[in-house]
Specification:
By secondary structure, the protein is mainly alpha-helical. The chain has one domain. The chain contains seven helices and no strands. α1 packs antiparallel against α2. It is elongated. The N and C termini lie far apart (56 Å). This is VIT family protein. It is found in: Endomembrane system.
């Protein structure tokens, strides 16, 4: 039975913040570490330098992704906090104008003028700031940024994604390592697309095509850049 307490159980929008960071981190981990390993393996006939470079790239990449995600999402949080402070002050200084704006918002969503004003009055009496934050600024508990959650999701997923090419480096033959990495990278991207689609409740085919096509383009561009600089990638 669907109630107000469980109506989101069949939806996935509440996963969007951390899922975005996780998919970004895993995708970046797979592609960047694979590209790094391919580049080093092309210039080395032994496994040790490849492993060293791959592990170093994995650690540095995971920390960089976590730090970058934390900083970027924190910037979003700062904007949200600043807007909330401005809205708080506006409610103190011009409460009547804010009430009219809220009623107009409801009118534009389809309410009659009288109904919109009545709804605005009742919601303002109950929670003026919370109502304006939600209705005027579009900030709610689902969409609100969480820097720590995003940083952990991005850093951990990069580490997991980057660990997969590392396994290939550890297990595959050194002479044909580039080809193993190319093949398994595509396979890893297909798996990532499937997992992200299932987690987000979206189309698996679309997710796989999107992530493998762009991943392949990224790998191809990496190889092209290496070719321009005389490096076999």
């Amino acid at each position: 039975m669907i109630t107000i307490d469980n109506y989101l159980d069949n939806h996935y929008i509440h996963r969007s913040n951390w899922l975005r960071a996780a998919v970004l981190g895993a995708n970046d981990g797979i592609i960047s570490i694979s590209s790094l390993a391919i580049g080093v393996s092309a210039a080395s006939s032994t496994r040790e330098p490849i492993i060293l470079a791959t592990v170093a790239g994995l650690v540095a990449g995971a920390l960089s992704m976590a730090a970058g995600e934390y900083v970027s999402v924190s910037s979003q949080t700062d904007i949200e906090k600043a807007d909330i402070e401005r809205e708080t002050q506006e409610l103190k200084d011009t409460p009547e104008e804010e009430l009219k704006i809220l009623a107009e918002i409801f009118e534009r969503r389809g309410m009659k003028k009288e109904t919109a004003m009545q709804a605005a009055i009742e919601l303002t009496e109950k929670d003026a700031l919370g109502t304006h934050i939600r209705e005027e600024l579009g900030i709610n508990e689902i969409s609100q940024a969480n820097p720590i959650q995003a940083a952990l999701a991005s850093g951990a997923s990069f580490a997991v994604g980057g660990f997969l090419p590392l396994l290939v480096v550890l297990l595959a033959a050194v002479k044909s390592l580039e080809y193993w990495l190319y093949g398994f990278t595509i396979l890893f991207l297909i798996v990532l697309g499937t997992i992200s689609a299932k987690t987000g409740g979206s189309s698996i085919i679309k997710a796989i095509l999107r992530i493998t096509i762009w991943g392949t383009i990224a790998m191809g561009l990496s190889a092209f850049v290496g070719y321009l600089f005389g490096v076999k990638v």
